[in-house]
Amino acid sequence: MTDNNTYPSEIVRPENERELIEVILAQPWTFAKTYVEKGPHEYFLRKDNELLYVMLVDAIREFGRDDYYYKTKYRYLDIGGYYYWHYYTLVNRRPRTPYTPEDIEQFMIKPHLVHDRA
Question: Are 107 and 113 in contact (CB under 8 A)?
Answer without folding.
Answer: yes
